[in-house]
Amino acid sequence: MDALPIVYVRGYAGPSSQIDVTVDDPFYGFNEGATHVRVGGDGDPMFYQFEGPLLRLMTEHGYQFLVRGDQRRFLESGTEPLTPKSVWVHRYYDEVATTFAAPKKRNFLEGIVDAITSHVDDNGFDIERAAAELYDLVIRVLERTGAPKVNLVAHSMGGLVARCMMQKVCETPVDGTPRRHARDIVAKLFTYGTPHGGIQLVLGAANWAMDAFGPAGSDVFSPSKMYGYLTPGKNFGDRAPAGDGWDPQRIPPEIFDADDVFCLIGTDPNDYTLARVAVGPRSDGLVLIEHAYVRGAHRAYVYKSHSGRYGEVNSEEGYQNLSRFLFGSWMAAIAFAGLPSSTEGLDPEDAWQADMGLSIRGLPIVMSEQQAAHWCPIQLNAEIRHEKDSVDAPIPIVRTFLFAKEPPVGGARTDAELLSRYALRLRVYKLTENNGGFDFADHLEQISDWSDTLIVDIGPEEDGSGFGAWTCWNSRLVGPIEATPRMPDRLQLTGRDDGTFTGTVPLPDVARGLPVFGADASLAVTVARRAPVVAVPAAG
Fold it and tell me: CA–CA distance from 84 to each of 184, 193, 302, 403, 406 (Å)?
């Protein structure tokens, strides 16, 4: 798949005082990385650094960040072709910043008033104007690079700016001239911590104030007001008609396919300023987990906060999910199958939950994890009821993207060099609720009723030809996992014409002995080749 231009759209900055700080960063924060420690073999902490998503895109995928003093002016002033392997930052806050403007003549009292208002006012920022400017930027990038489409990468409110462009701006003609549809100019949309369902605070009065007054433009996060800037023909502040079923977390399929959207969801509410007090747990410190995704989209859960030193954008977890979504050759998904047809056989006071963690060989991070300790376990009772796409009952359990491994040139080819290996860790436990509280009478805290890890190898046959998948539960392996170069159980895959392969892995006997699973419970594995991006000619 040919690399496409990447356009980055940063998140909400706040009032003018913070906007001025934001515009002083030439990369709008997309360059920031992080440092961590983990305990080594001698028991002491060892240093580890992640250099940031922008630098990794440049070193691993050959991207360029073309600036020449002013990236937008450089893009608009020339005519020579530019490389599609380029990153562009939508600097939509520049025009409302005061740091670039000539100092205003004002007396002492006016200076005091301006100093105060700079902490509560956003100097006229408008999300629809930012979205319209994003459209212009995308079109110009396509013209200069010759690329068929762009990939949009957005943090927080930047995802709403992108969706406003895709759902409203692209569908709104200018002086009778149609704009290009989002599906014709955008290949993929990746969001970090975007409040696709708005922001909800603990105090009802705070939600009312945000909706009614929107200090520093914060009313863009009011779920009821999102209807106006996500719907063609409507105005900001318009409310969805009662009973029409409008859902801010849904992108109409005729506008853009949710299969081309990936939402990274943060689950650590503890490291994001004082906002975490107003939002509470089950969030990344600002955005509730249940509001941080588009329905039907791919998603991953990472124990990171909304922003800051332990934030989602400047994390290895975020970059690895971004990189594989944009460039991965294969999609791999695992879902529960063969579960009981109803919860009738379960004690109504028992809540069955599962922790999940996905790891990929060679990476120092967990790609996605849902844990009770992070306030987002998989609710197995809801899985049995086949509830609609939700944060706690995802169907499938997990979905990730893999790079196809190219055979090494010369020398013997080992399985480690040929196979993509990933592992799905599952831990199932039961909580008993009685009279609105937990009943711990027969409970063993932190002890699971079943836990195991499914190891999956995907790649060519041993002779280097064909394609296959091999699996094994970790409980059956003897010795270190790495001592088994290729898992012993060949997964019987059924292929379809669209390049999708499906197979089934039975759960171990211990798991099938649990009433929440039953004798027929299994994991359904789907592996699909990613379709290349097809160019769509502009109208006229």
Answer: 16, 27, 30, 20, 23
At 226, phi and psi to the nearest 5? Answer: -65, -25
H or E stretch covering 405: none
Q: Is 456 helix (H, G, I), strand (E, B) or coil?
A: strand
CA-closest candidate to residue 145, choices 86, 187, 59? 86
Rounded to an integer, what distance in angstroms lies between the CA atom of residue 284 and that of residue 156?
11
Residue 231 corresponds to which tokens in the numbers above?
């719907």
CA distance 167 to 170: 6
DSSP 3-state helix, strand, coil percentages of the chain (rounded to 5)? 25, 25, 50
Cα separations in angstroms, 66 against 85, 429, 450? 10, 52, 52
248 touches 197 (CB < 8 A): yes
H helices of 87-178, in order, are: 108-117, 127-145, 157-167
**CB-based contacts of 416: which residues, under 8 Å, 6+ apart?**
361, 485
DSSP element (H, E) containing 254? none
> Tokens for 20?
């001025």
pLDDT tens, position by position, 66-112: 998 899 999 988 889 999 999 999 999 998 888 766 666 666 565 56
Of 178, 189, 184, the residue nearest 148 (C-alpha): 184
6-9 and 87-89: which strand pairing? Answer: parallel
Token pair listed for 478: 């003897």
Residue 208 CB coordination number (10 Å): 12
Token representation of residue 356: 């999940």
State the amino acid at position 77 in one-letter form. S
* pTM for this entry: 0.92
